[in-house]
Amino acid sequence: MNSADDIKSVAVSGAGVMGHGIAEVYALNGYPVWMMDVNDELLRRGMGYIKSELKTLIDNGFTTEEEADKALKRISTTTSLKEAVEGREFVTEAVTEDLKLKRRIFSEMESYVSEDAILASNTSGLMITKIARGLKRPDRVIGTHFSVPPHIVPGVEIIRGKKTSDLTFKIAYDLIKKVGKVPFVVKKEIDGFLLNRLQLALNREAFYLVEKGVATPEDVDICLNSVLGFRWATVGPFRQIDSAGIDTAARVWKYLLPTLANYKKTPKMIIDKVAKGEYGMKTGKGIYEYPNIEEAYRKRDDGFLKTLKVMKTIWK
Questions:
Q1: Which of 138, 157, 186 is the last residue in one of the domains?
Q2: What's the pLDDT score for residue 315?
Q3: At residue 316, does pLDDT exceed 80?
Q4: Is residue 269 predicted with pLDDT exceeding 80?
Q5: Whole-number Cα distances in Å, 182 to 12, 199, 273
Q6: Is the domain of 89 the same as that of 132?
Q7: Contact, 105 vs 136, CB < 8 A?
Q8: Do 35 and 120 fall within a single domain?
Q9: CA distances (Å), 52 to each of 25, 39, 56, 147, 201, in order?
Q10: Of 234, 67, 50, which Cα lies nearest the Cα of 152?
């Protein structure tokens, strides 16, 4: 395989929150997709999510009923990893963040695929080099980290392991662009990559401010939505500092940095919520309450899609 054009079919291991959405992306872009999970119930649930999400895409003008029907017909489901990956040129692993589990799956996938097939992980922060350790061909392993919800969010992290080949990187990068996503590159492996390190740093401060009684979760969200999120949608932190003035940033950092949250443990609010089984939208209650879970997801996606429409006009 010499280019992304040589990829004719793909497979996704995992039909959960990330896996079903990744399968949906490839199917919408014309690729036959084999989606695998450990039992039929998980596969039925994953296909249910896809059907619901396709309806939201239709309602927002991002696809048509005809194209959605074609996408659904391109997706095959199976509980056999061998059946899913055998003969595919590009395979994505999207299982839970467990290094031992991922390594076992990659070892098994490697035994089924052709010599030049690419094995990608959707890990949100585990080292690609560690995932590929022990494989015969670590040069064809790469990270392609989609974000929730993967069928909408445009950005995808591309992460090289120490032994990832230039060809593997180029093919994966080009494929992500072919399916309409916006790739950004992690040049040097680090736990959490770019996205989750930046996200966690901000979330740590957000929970700190709430736990200290400085603000409510609602007002923290409003602050981010109406100011930081608004600005960062068009200019990232580096361009924002350029526009505000690096000299001003230096003065602010000098007095403010020592006061920021720097704890290394999970916030008490998170620990308490987990103990109560209040995991967020998927359980109907987290920081906020969601009496209608399906409607909550639909409203979220409607908002994302409206934002994406605007962003596409800015990126032109």
A1: 186
A2: 78
A3: no
A4: yes
A5: 20, 18, 34
A6: yes
A7: no
A8: yes
A9: 14, 21, 7, 18, 33
A10: 50
Q: Are residues 82 and 182 in the same domain?
A: yes
Domain shared by 181 and 227, yes or no = no
* Lookup result for tokens 């072919």: 178
Domain hosting residue 307, numbered range: 195-315
Give the model confidence (pLDDT) of 140-174 as tens digits.
999 999 999 999 999 999 999 999 999 999 999 99
Which run of H or of E encompasses 53? helix 40-59
Per-residue exposure over 118-155, b if at least 16 CB sit within 10 Å of its own CB, e if not? bbbbbbbbbbbbbbbbebebbbbbbbbbbbebbbbeee
Q: b/e map of 32-53 (b: 16 or more CB within 10 Å)? A: ebbbbbeeeebbeebbebbeeb
* Claim to verify: residue 182 and residue 305 sit in the same structural domain: no
Task: Please choose, from the candidates 65, 71, 73, the residue with its C-alpha nearest in 3D space to the C-alpha of residue 21.
Answer: 71
What is residue 133's DSSP assignment?
T
Question: What is the CATH number for 123?
Answer: 3.40.50.720
Q: Which amino acid is at 296?
A: A
Instruction: Encode pLDDT of 205-228 as tens digits.
Output: 999 999 999 999 999 999 999 999
Q: What is the CATH number of the domain that holds 308?
A: 1.10.1040.10
Region of 29 please: left (phi>0), alpha (psi -120 to 50) or beta.
Answer: alpha
Evaluate if residue 136 carries a pLDDT over 80.
Answer: yes
pLDDT digits (tens, 9 = 90+) for 271-306: 999 999 999 999 999 999 999 999 999 999 999 999
Distance CA 209, CA 225 (A): 16
